[in-house]
Inverse folding.
């Protein structure tokens, strides 16, 4: 089982079926907050939907196509983060993340994304890590900016979000840049 200790308060672990109820609870608890930027929220209506998500992430892990982890903060599941895609032929990954609204503003996600970036370059030996965030999602965009990612561009109408399109900003980090930081 994949577990990655970040510091004394934060760890990442592969989700398992036992996490479905808590995962659903934190999704439901932050539903209106998450819905502003995440298109999957309305499709998560029951604990079984969270179980389905967990099974999907485990299959992606087994197939080496992605690594989605639960974020543990002081032992409690507070969100998910990981590599939504792993592209081995191009040695790159795309990081995605979300967290319960009650845990925002404590630097948790910045530490998580820092650790994932480190893991991508040090352990997985990738060359590139990418993060995409909606143009208007300032909190999400602040994380790669804080970590020194390069803003590489904007993709117009990149995602359909319930009733409108949103633009995405693309951030990238290369292995040789990360070593220099």
């Amino acid at each position: 089982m994949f577990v990655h200790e970040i510091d004394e308060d934060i760890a990442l672990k592969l989700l398992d079926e036992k996490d479905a109820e808590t995962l659903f609870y934190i999704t439901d608890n932050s539903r209106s907050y998450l819905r502003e930027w995440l298109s999957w929220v309305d499709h998560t209506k029951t604990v079984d939907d969270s179980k389905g998500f967990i099974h999907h992430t485990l299959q992606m892990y087994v197939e080496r196509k992605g690594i989605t982890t639960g974020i543990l903060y002081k032992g409690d599941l507070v969100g998910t983060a990981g590599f939504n895609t792993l592209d081995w032929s191009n040695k790159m990954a795309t990081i995605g993340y979300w967290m319960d609204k009650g845990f925002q503003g404590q630097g948790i996600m910045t530490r998580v994304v820092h650790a994932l970036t480190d893991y991508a370059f040090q352990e997985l030996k990738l060359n590139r890590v990418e993060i995409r965030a909606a143009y208007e999602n300032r909190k999400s965009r602040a994380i790669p900016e804080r970590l020194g990612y390069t803003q590489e561009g904007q993709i117009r109408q990149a995602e359909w979000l319930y009733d409108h399109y949103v633009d995405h900003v693309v951030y990238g980090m290369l292995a040789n840049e990360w070593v220099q930081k």
Remarks:
- The mean pLDDT is 95.
- The first helix runs from residue 20 to 29.
